[in-house]
Amino acid sequence: MGDTDGYAVSAEFYDLLQAESDRRLAERRFAGAADRARHAILDVGAGTGIVTEVLLRTSGVPVHAVEPASAMRAALLSRLAHLGADQRARITVHPEPLETAGLTEIADLAVASNVIASLDPATRRATWKAIAAALTPGGLLLFDPPPDRLPDEPEPAIRLGPVRVGPDIYSAEVTRLPHRGVLRTTFVYRVERQGEVLREERETFQVWSAPAERIADELDAAGLHLVRAPDAGLMAARRPAA
């Protein structure tokens, strides 16, 4: 989340290949909590704004979208440009990493979707503290946790797409390889026309594992306490009420 040059390759392809599945997942996981928010919502690592749009549509409160990666922020702002004026009036985009944004008690709900696993341990711990500071007393955090452990062997490749745009076919192959204590996740994007590859681009990200017990300890140290999550794929924590 602190890398402003990250996603320089993936931003071009992200929405085309992943937006619909990400939107359905966000609606299932976050819409209910967003509807119950009464102060504001913090979107940690907003990316291209898929989750942000769901939060805006299913709530009536301000939304703070934190996205330091310039390529993803460009896509986020393009998405916001197509929303209604009433929704744009409720959104604030923060271009710096959350741990340096200085946000204090601004939201009663924080959402971190597809973010925590991409943070190295030191940044992850700093992010918990920044979220705790940004939440009002009693505020709720929802996030998808990192994997408990790294696989012993490379995982089977995953294919995204294909998606047709005019005469061109867009797709991606995702491979995950354990390497020196992290999971190296590589996206290879391809654009094909009439069976020929016009372009091939790749970008690699790192994923850090952490067992649930470690996450619980880190949250506790930051002043957040685990509570029951509304979805089996999420973890939830709450800042104690004053």
List the helices and strands and how they pair.
Blueprint: H1 10-36, E1 41-44, H2 50-58, E2 63-66, H3 70-81, H4 85-88, E3 91-94, H5 98-101, E4 107-112, H6 121-134, E5 135-143, E6 155-165, E7 168-179, E8 182-193, E9 196-207, H7 212-222, E10 225-227, E11 235-238
Parallel strand pairs: 1-2, 1-4, 2-3, 4-5
Antiparallel strand pairs: 5-11, 6-7, 7-8, 8-9, 10-11
Helix pairs in contact: 1-2, 6-7
Sum up the structure in keywords.
single chain, Rossmann fold, alpha/beta, 242 residues, 2 domains
Structural description of this entry:
- With 242 residues, the protein is of the alpha/beta class.
- The protein folds into two domains: 10-147 and 210-238, Vaccinia Virus protein VP39 (Rossmann fold, 3-Layer(aba) Sandwich); 155-207.
- It is 33% helix and 33% strand.
- It has seven helices and eleven strands.
- It has a seven-stranded mixed sheet. Strands 6-7-8-9 form a four-stranded antiparallel sheet.
- The longest helix has 27 residues, at 10-36.
- It is globular.
- The two termini are 30 Å apart.
- The model has no long low-confidence stretch (mean pLDDT 95).
Helix-strand pattern, N to C?
A: HEHEHHEHEHEEEEEHEE
> Got a strand count?
11
> How many H/I helices?
7
Rough outline: globular
Distance between the termini: 30 Å
CATH homologous superfamily caption of the largest domain: Vaccinia Virus protein VP39
Largest sheet: 7 strands, mixed
What is the percent of helical residues?
25-40%
User: Strands of the largest sheet, in order across it?
Assistant: 3-2-1-4-5-11-10
CATH architecture of the largest domain: 3-Layer(aba) Sandwich
CATH topology of the largest domain: the name is: Rossmann fold
Write down the overall mean pLDDT. 95
| Low-confidence residue ranges | none
**Computed CA radius of gyration, to the nearest angstrom:** 18 Å
Number of domains: 2
Q: Tell me the name of the CATH class of the largest domain.
A: Alpha Beta
Strand composition percent? 25-35%
Derived from helix and strand composition plus strand pairing, the structural class reads alpha/beta
